[in-house]
Amino acid sequence: MKSLKNSVYSVIGMLLLASLPILSVNPAYAEEAAQSGESAQILQSFNQQHKAAEHEKAIPEKEKKQIMFLLGVLLFVMVLITGGLGLAMGLYAKPLFVPHMVFAALSITLACVHAIVGLVWFYPF
Which pTM value belongs to this model? Predict the structure, then answer.
């Protein structure tokens, strides 16, 4: 048993010693090739076209604020409906658990959408 243990340790030691040269190899870096004038101009024209297309697709700031306002109004109404259903269940013992949970789930989803859209559109990155 002891000789088997020693042989396993010696094999592991040999593997570690054999892998030491691999650890000391420096990574190779590709050199940046100088672009010729013609290819650089082609790339610049593609970039300008892409920027122009993105600018045409952009939503104006006023529309963004209107969309956020409408999302907020809808969210407020859904929270009020959820609260009303909860009060009807609690105070008047109405069987409205399923609609209450559906409106609660929709309210949470809309709240997450409202927060994400607000961060993406208005947070200065």
Answer: 0.56
